[in-house]
C-alpha cells in the first residue's frame, strides 16, 4: 500500500530545518506484524514515525538511529530503529497490555507507555562508538518526549508533532507528522512566530486524514518561505535473514546450541523468530551441528 514519504526542507536562510512525513503504511505494517491493541499501535507508531524523522538527519544509508522508550507503563519498553534511507522497524515488549485505552475520547498513549522512565537515542554513524543520549520521559505521549530530548540532549530547540489515528476496528487510518528545528541564529521574533503557528496547527492526523501531504503541512507552517530539499519514500524494513539468525545462535554459545539440537531433533531444527518483524526462520539440524562444530573449534 501507501504513499508513505518524508520531505526535508529548510527555511529562514537555512536557520530552520523542517521535516514532514506520512507514515500511514509503515504504522499499519507494524500493527500487522506485532498484533498491537490500538493504544499500543499509536505508541509504537508515533515512536517509529519519530525514528524516521530523526533518520532523515542521517548522512549515510547505513547509519542507524534507534529510539528507545523505557517507561513505567504496562506496554513496557518500546523501540524503533530507522536507517538513512527511510527504512524503519520496531518492537514493543507487551503489544496487548491490560490498560484503559481511551480517555476523553482519545487514545491514552501515556497510560500505556507510562509517565516516568527514560528515552534513549542511539546514533550509529559507523564509527564503532555510537553516540548515545538519554533524557527522562516528560509526558509519555512520545512527541513531547522526542522534542524534550532534542532540546535537552542535543541543544536544538525543536517542535515535534506526530500522531496515529486508529479506526474502531483497530486498523490504521493515518500516521505521520512534522519536526521543526531552530538552529543558532534564529531571532527571538522569528522563533516566536514559528512557535505560534505550530501551536495553532491542527493535529497531524487531522491534516493527514483531510488528505494533506507532507508538503502541505510544511506550507501551513512556513507559507511560501521555505525550500523543499529532498523527498524520500519510507517503509517498514527489517534486515533480518537466516544468516543473521544463525549468527545470533552462535552468540548463545556451544551449550545452548547443543540444547537446541537436542530439543529440535524431532522437528528437524530450531525456530528462530525475529523480534522486530516476527519472521520465523527454521534453522535445520545440519546447520546447527555445523555451528556447534565451529564453536567447539
Ligand atoms: Zn526481522
Radius of gyration equals 21 Å
Q: What compounds are bound to the protein?
A: zinc ion
Oligomeric organization of the protein chains = single chain
**Which range does the strand content fall in?**
25-35%
SSE-based structural type: alpha+beta
Shape from CA axes?
globular
Helicity level = 25-40%
CATH topology of the largest domain, which one? Hsp33 domain
**CATH first level of the largest domain:** Alpha Beta
The separation of the N and C termini measures: 48 Å
CATH H-tier superfamily of the largest domain: Hsp33 domain
What does this structure look like?
The chain is 34% helix and 31% strand. It has 297 residues and is α+β, with helices and mostly antiparallel strands. It folds into 2 domains: 5-236, Hsp33 domain; 242-295, HSP33 redox switch-like (CBS domain Like), CATH 3.90.1280. The chain has a 6-stranded mixed β-sheet, with helices on one face. Helix 1 packs across helix 2 and helix 9 runs antiparallel to helix 10. The longest helix has 18 residues, at 38-55.
Quick overview:
This protein is α+β, with helices and mostly antiparallel strands and 297 residues long.
Layout of helices and strands, plus pairs?
Layout: E1 5-11, E2 16-22, H1 24-34, H2 38-55, E3 64-71, E4 78-83, E5 87-92, E6 102-103, E7 106-107, H3 109-113, E8 117-124, E9 131-136, H4 143-152, E10 158-166, E11 172-182, H5 188-199, H6 204-209, H7 214-222, E12 226-233, E13 235-236, H8 242-250, H9 254-264, E14 269-273, E15 280-284, H10 285-295
Parallel strand pairs: 5-13
Antiparallel strand pairs: 1-2, 1-12, 2-11, 3-4, 3-8, 4-5, 6-7, 8-9, 10-11, 14-15
Helix pairs in contact: 1-2, 9-10
The structure holds zinc ion.
